[in-house]
Design the sequence.
């Protein structure tokens, strides 16, 4: 996120609220974690978003969507989504930012699996997230 904060005057991280999506953390927990992790970046805000991404972007006053890419498979999916979003909101651009090479293999599914099996996830997530994962899985 620090790279995005250097590229844009203002960055808003949208936390999707999809009731049909199975997540380990609630929307409120994800918002809290992101605020804790990103709090030192003055031009980065965190917001709960519902519904279509293009509608949320309009409501937040965004003119660009920034999407991270880990590998070629991500690009195919994200490019299709970018074209669809552009059809729905022609003034909204999408910019792709490749992940750091040392994190290109990381996915939330793998991180959850490693954590559930008692592995160390600190190489893949910020310390606050690693601690929250440990607490959640102990309570769970």
Sequence:
């Amino acid at each position: 996120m620090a790279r995005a904060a250097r590229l844009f005057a203002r960055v808003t991280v949208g936390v999707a609220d999809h009731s049909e999506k199975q997540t380990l953390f609630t929307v409120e927990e994800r918002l809290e974690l992101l605020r804790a992790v990103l709090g030192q970046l003055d031009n980065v805000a965190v917001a709960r978003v519902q519904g279509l991404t293009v509608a949320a972007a309009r409501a937040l006053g965004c003119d660009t969507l920034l999407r991270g890419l880990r590998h070629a498979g991500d690009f195919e999916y994200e490019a299709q989504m970018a074209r669809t979003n552009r059809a729905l909101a022609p003034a909204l651009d999408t910019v792709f930012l490749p992940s750091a090479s040392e994190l290109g293999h990381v996915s939330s599914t793998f991180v959850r699996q490693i954590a559930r099996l008692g592995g160390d996830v600190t190489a893949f997530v910020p310390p606050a997230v690693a601690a929250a994962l440990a607490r959640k899985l102990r309570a769970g």
The chain has six helices and four strands. Helices lie at 2-7, 27-38, 53-60, 72-88, 108-116, 127-139. Residues 72-88 form the longest helix (17 residues). The chain has two domains: 2-101, 106-140.
